[in-house]
Amino acid sequence: MTRTIAPPHPFDAAVELTPAGDGRFSGHTSPAYANMVGPFGGITAATLLRAVQQHQDRLGDPLSLTVNYAGPIAEGAFEISARPVRTNRSTQHWALELSQDGVVATTATAVFGTRRETWSSTEIARPDVPAVDDVEAGAFPEFIAWSRNYEMRFVEGGIPTTEAVEHPDTVSTLWVRDAPARPLDFAALTAMSDVFFPRIFLRRGQFMPAGTVSMTVYFHADAEVLAEQGEDVLLGTARAQQIRRGYFDQSAELWGRDGELLATTHQLVYFKD
User: Fold this and answer.
1) Of the four listed, 44, 104, 168, 235, which is most buried by Cβ atoms within 10 Å?
2) What are 174's strand-pairing partners?
3) 48: which residues sit within 8 A by CB, 6+ positions away?
């Protein structure tokens, strides 16, 4: 009897890295996660996180990740260098670079560490929204390839139509998970932190040139909490605080269906009108 080996999930194929020695890893962009220009920023961030996770000197799990998109990433091969800058008793600081043909396209810093039991409190509240089964699945335009890897059900602030109608605010709230479904881990949570399209699209009611300059993800959940989420949907909500002179900020939260705050994220986004 011949056993058939199932192909890897598209996400795992996209973030796959091969050790190349001396803290370096080789990878390749995935057409399935292509964006309007270059790869989906979330998949780039997830791949950088994976480089640290695969490093032999890693301590603990991710606490934060900051990615600076310094230049375009072309379709094809790339190399990531991951270097532990300093290791303390409970935290470890990393410097990363993604380069193609010797040219740096993306830089990042990460903080990994170990957690301990302490007093805790969550001051923000999860949005009060309809159940996931009561919200219809939405779709991005066909040319945005990466969006087809996610099931997204917008409660408010969905992707603009071609009518170019301005929206009174920049808030989007949606149920989201990988498609096909996949157990949640830190890399997948990192990528989902970037599923929120640029806030100016919603505010102006139209697509325009825009791209993330810098993104930071703060991980509030540990590996045990993520494992408890399984393949279930997450609830995400995003907003901008100010849009001005070619840039805007963008903040978002990702919650488990059980009400657990899993991650918060903040971006600086460039736009041109």
Assistant:
1) 44
2) 154, 236
3) 65, 67, 80, 82, 96, 98, 106, 108, 110
Q: Which tokens go with 122?
A: 């969550």
CA dist list (Å): 230 to 41, 148, 234: 24, 20, 10
Q: What secondary structure letter does DSSP report for 248? A: E
What is the rounded CA–CA span in Å between residue 106 and residue 68? 6
Torsions phi, psi for 63 (to 5 deg): -110, -40
* pLDDT one-digit tens code per residue, 17-40: 999 999 999 999 999 999 988 999
pTM of model > 0.85 = yes
**CB burial readout 162-197, b (16+ within 10 A) else e:** eeeeebeebbbbbbbbbeeebebbbbbbbbbbbbbb
CA distance 80 to 46: 12
Integer Cα distance of 205 and 50 in angstroms: 35
CA distance 36 to 99: 20
Distance CA(215)–CA(154), nearest Å, equals: 22
Query: In Å, what is the CA distance from 45 to each residue of 98, 107, 111, 181, 247?
Result: 10, 10, 14, 20, 20
Confidence band of 164 (pLDDT split at 50, 70, 90): confident
